[in-house]
Write a structure and sequence with these properties.
elongated; 6-stranded mixed beta sheet; Nuclear Transport Factor 2, Chain: A; 191 residues; 5 helices; alpha+beta
Length: 191
Amino acid sequence: MPSFNSPDVVAQVEQHHDAYERALIAHDVAALDGYFWDSPDVVRYGVSEHLYGAEAVAEYRRSGGPTLTDRRLVRRKVVAIGDNVASVMCEFHQKVFGQPRHSRQSQVWVRLDGGGWKIVAAHVSNALMGPPQAGSLEAFADQTAAVLGVPLAAAHRPGVVQNLERAAAIAAPLLKLPLAAEAEVASVFVP
């Protein structure tokens, strides 16, 4: 039976994970690619993507991925299994396309001969936080569907909310532009 939670192994993996997080926040694509195992067997599941193989993971990074800001690690648990395998489970508060999210990330790290510590499997998801809060885009999607009498299937709801998030992110800079009162001429109702 392997040993568990060697303090030295846990510390090594925590250091690599910290560096990975810094690269993620900086969107350092080359560094991020370097943390993943260069193999067709590596797997990364994201919130809306399923990536199989190092090329797919690298292509996802090159395509931009979501815009993450204000990312803050809330909790991390590293479990070392022997000297060469560890799991890293994390919770984060962050903004994705400007919208607050509570996200989860799990990774399996393996120390490879000559290659050091690499991520061989990863999974990212948004935590379900209960019913939508009043004023949230989730609540807006539900209320709009109800008013229009359009059924919103559970399988389609995340995509609808994601499109609303993207539209809000696109509109946000425009809504911040100051306009003089005379720039927005409104029609005047005269009975």
